[in-house]
Give the backbone structure.
Amino acid sequence: MSIDVEHFISIRDHTTARLERFLEVAFLLRNQRQMRGEHAQSLRGKTLAMLFEKPSLRTRVSFEQAMNELGGHAIVLSQNEVGLGKRESVADVTRVLDGMVHGIAARVYDHATLVEMTEYSCVPVINMLSDDSHPCQALADVMTMMDEFCNGLGSLSGRTLAFVGDGNNVARSLAMICGKLGMNFILASPPGYQLESTFVDEVMSENPTMNFEQTHDASVAVKYADAIYADTFVSMGQEDEKEARLTTFAPYQLNEALIGQAPDHAIVLHCLPAYRGVEITDGVMDGPQSRVFAQAHNRLHAQKGMLATLLGG
Ligand code: CP
Ligand code: NVA
């Protein structure tokens, strides 16, 4: 079964024009909020159900606040109460919710859960993070780079994002959005933790002129970077691998020595939560090139742009 409704579970499903539309609305709503203290009420009477299989600070607060500011409402549901796929099947939960609310957002372990939801839902399904990807994070990250390099909505074409660390969900969404926006993407990761060749082939086939590189050398990755990105070395669900990962990833810490090898204008991004002293030092996180808190705040605005467009029509 496939129902004709627009979801947001992966950057791959959306055209450049559509992603730019989300961003355009995000910047517009942010300007209205910051300049005039106004909030467009484009989601008045709309409700978003939010399901969490994993913890969250930024995603939960930014989605709930986005719905409030747009005149709508969010219902936050924990896995303890819903038992998605345990107390009740994913299909049945989806078929119940889509008759009551106007959107379903979920943070899940297995990306297949989101795909299954899209097969049953008559309302948009939104990925609030899965093992595969974190597309809402990528939208906020692009906003933050646009703030820096375009002074607002603009073109990032030709800019280079260097991701230092694990070829994970966040890296995947960033690589995809870089391709869609004409950016270069370079990942520095230890052997065995690079992005899969099938994924690289997919991104490259869609964006044949993209410069998509992978290296094991962090200093090579940052050399021509406009933005340098860190994420945890141990994603949620990988706690059993923590000890081995911390050893393997130690050379991939964003520290002063590594940032010193990047261009002076390069900014530092981190999706957060940060494990200070592990993947990023205090000096870099709190240093002049860091934009990590502005980036976190952009989660609210990016979410508003996407939600207003998908749920508001
Ligand atoms: N960056 C991010 O998604 O943060 P949370 O896990 O706190 O939502
Ligand atoms: N890669 C991290 C991102 C946290 C926002 C995780 O999946 O836990």
The first strand starts at residue 47 and ends at 52. The beta strands are 47-52, 73-78, 103-107, 125-127, 160-164, 184-188, 212-215, 227-230, 267-270.
